[in-house]
Amino acid sequence: MASISSNETVTQREQSMVLEDVKLIYTIFADVPPKTKLLLLELHRDNHMEYLLSGLQQLGPSFCVLDANRPWICYWILHSIALLGESIATGLEDRTIDFLSRCQDPDGGYGGGPGQMPHLATTYAAVNSLITLGDEKSLSSIDRDKIYRFLLSMKDSNGAFRMHDAGEMDVRACYTAISVASVLNILDNELVRDVGNYILSCQTYEGGISGEPGSEAHGGYTFCGLATMILINEVDRLDLATLLDWVVFRQGVEGGFQGRTNKLVDGCYSFWQGGIFALLQRFHTIIGESMTLLDAGQANCADSSLTTVESDISDGEESLDGISSSDGEACVTQQGGRIISKGGDEACFFQPGGREPLFNSIALQRYILLCSQDSGGGLKDKPQKGRDHYHTCYCLSGLSVSQHCWSKDEDSSPLPGAVLGPYFNLLEPINPIHNVVLERYREAQEFFTRA
Ligand SMILES: CC(C)=CCC/C(C)=C/CC/C(C)=C/COP(=O)(O)OP(=O)(O)O
Ligand SMILES: [Zn+2]
């Protein structure tokens, strides 16, 4: 898979079927008393844990579903467990470290299973899994010298990376290579050389980033491209104003995000698109300058669609405040092309150093909790779909980003009003560049600075 195919616009019928499902859910929700609302908004932690643990236990030699994807399954499950603030039993942890070690190629990098050829995506998944497990045994099982050689061997003469030997070259490959090198503290000029030029050549007329030059902008690749540019310190080369403009328009009336123009919302984009806001907010210190280019007219996009959610879908619902765990101190409402703070003051679309997220974080949490959650455990794309580990991981990652995006810095706990539903829904914060739980990222940083 080199990249996504050209955009087949969804039919009006498909779009309205999803909207009907979501509307029904929100209408029922709007009619129940506040106590029931809180119950409906509960994150089903125990059921999610049960679903995740049973997935991890199946990773033994006989596990053959998605056989070339096993380090991914480990990452999606382990990261979801860490987001929930939980850990796994020592025996299971040892077996997972041992399994991932057997996926490590003698010449460096990790394959999709023992004996399989090394691949950048599974190397990223394995490294993030081991960082998430996080102790000495886990971190020291990574052969950094060999990984460095593997990464270098994946680099093309034009500066970009290939996913595997003679494999496809794309923005995902650049991100996974640079993310791994950075987190393991082996990033150098040789790995960085000309990657920025490649990413730049993938920013499209819409403002988002495509998988390869000439393709369509997509949330997955925009996240990968932006995170890479931040890691190599070249983010200012991107046109950030149009990128922000593009991503703001991807939040739908349902509250969730779509991956690209004219496609359906999907829970996994809660992270791929929601994470872009976290990157822009946390890691781009001079973003305020670029954002002054966005006038109120452009900001209008987010407002009009989300105002529609309130009037169309949540008909009868007093306000989002009524379903937050506090009286919604931190909530803003969006009106008439401007963002208005609760006190009624008009705020500019982006306030440098300010705390307001650039998307409707409460509407996103509502989509995740009410439309993407399987009450029996696991999360999913949209109401009529089934759960899976990929969507569980990225819906929870997006939920964490949307709960923590109001905090003034990454070490502050969110105010109750920033968390939709009971405060017990609060997940661990992440480092959004690598998408690992913040505390584990810091421990790894310390370990690999010493090592
Ligand atoms: C780290 C790493 C490996 C990142 C991957 C990022 C990512 C999610 C890329 C998008 C991949 C893709 C094929 C999307 C289109 O699918 P689609 O056409 O089925 O979905 P759509 O209709 O929502 O666009
Ligand atoms: Zn999805």
UniProtKB/TrEMBL annotation:
Gene3D superfamilies: 1.50.10.20. GO terms for molecular function: protein farnesyltransferase activity; zinc ion binding. Keywords: Metal-binding, Prenyltransferase, Repeat, Transferase, Zinc. One of its GO terms (cellular component) is protein farnesyltransferase complex. Its EC number is 2.5.1.58. It comes from the Eukaryota. Pfam families: Prenyltrans. Signal peptide: none annotated. Belongs to the protein prenyltransferase subunit beta family. This is Protein farnesyltransferase subunit beta. It comes from Dipteronia dyeriana. The lineage of its organism: Eukaryota, Viridiplantae, Streptophyta, Embryophyta, Tracheophyta.
